[in-house]
Amino acid sequence: MKQEYFVVVLAHSLRGRLRRVHIPHTAVYAVLLLALLGGFSAFGFVASYARMAFKVANYNALKKEADTLRSRYQNLQKVVKETNVQIASLQVLAQEVSVAYGIKQKLEGPTDITREGKLVPSYAESLNEFNYLVSADKLALFDRRSRHFGTFPDAKPRFNIWPVEGRLMSAFAQRTDPFSGEGAFHRGVDISAPTGTMVHSTADGVVIQAEMVSGGYGRLVIVDHGNGLQTYYAHLSKISVHAGQELRCGDLVGLVGSSGRTTAPHLHFEVRTSGSPVNPSRFLANSTIFHQAPKDIPFQ
Question: How many CB atoms lie within 10 A of CB 184?
């Protein structure tokens, strides 16, 4: 069978001769197929190059952004380090000022002061320090007045009254703790009285503490009478004085209650000289309102 073909006629421009070229159909189809495949290959190459160029541009942008963030992070680290140094210096200065003014007895805290967290004092801490300064100032003024008028001579002031009208239930001595059942030293005396009974100051003095405290005392009032003598009024249901307030013998301190570690309403009364508890009985022996009762009823 004779093969089909295309005839291409070529004419010479000068000589005028004609030439016929026979091109088989298969050759033409093969050339077209190769051209089509070449076009697809070229398109794929261009697309791959464009995609790679886009990725490179995106990578360069991300690298530039990362370098910018790294630079900002290093600057922030430098600022934080300088701030920490300034905060530590201010904290040390604040503690030195506290020691200088008697707010604290010594510097406390870890060597690395920046680990303590925020340095701003809480409201309660600020109020306590304010009350301490007020009471210290009042106490100093009261001591000066006492020395000037001779209110408190070198001898200890004498108590003229009992702090509350009631019955002595537990004395200053070794006893069995009503809660733990173990031996414990009772640093004061317990005077039984109904809740709400008025508690009075046993002598002239200045209130140096009046607040709810931990450790079993409950609502506590401490009165300084000068010359190292202090009286404690604990387990109150209500406090009627404030730190820094001057009191005269018989002034109202608060009301009997059962706050803190107690088993019944009563007043826990302590006397301390130079910070050490002493037996209140020798101060109350010659005072009015004295009722003795059996000591087998447990009180704190």
Answer: 14
